[in-house]
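User: Please check token order:
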Amino acid sequence: MTVEVRMGILRDRLYVDRHECEILRGRHGWRHVVDPNGRGGRVRYDSWRDRIDIESPDGSLQIRFRLRHTTFSWRGRTYSVTSTGWSRVTVTDEQRRTVVEARLTWSGIRLESLDPEFRPIERELALGLAQRSLAWAMAIAPVG
């Protein structure tokens, strides 16, 4: 299953296996993922604190990025986030097994492999990582 996020000026797009899911922009930087089954969550990337907040019916998650050794907990397990260069983001578990592998694109991010543990929040996780990658790209882009 492939999850792809395309960030835009006026609208963001989220595709799950080429089917578009609706994203609504809320107050205070929140993005709401609309799910027809009522299982949608919301995501916010805080660029000042460099963190992603995810709230979903399956639980809440906060990823605080650091220069090195970024970790977070989800369902009683600890995971590490590593960025390899400018094009890949990987999440590994305590046994160093890759559970999420994402590739940065020009307009967002594409989750290429995903452990079943993260299926309930796959859309929210992809959207949060896309927001962070876009914020970093805009921060280093040369201005006019």
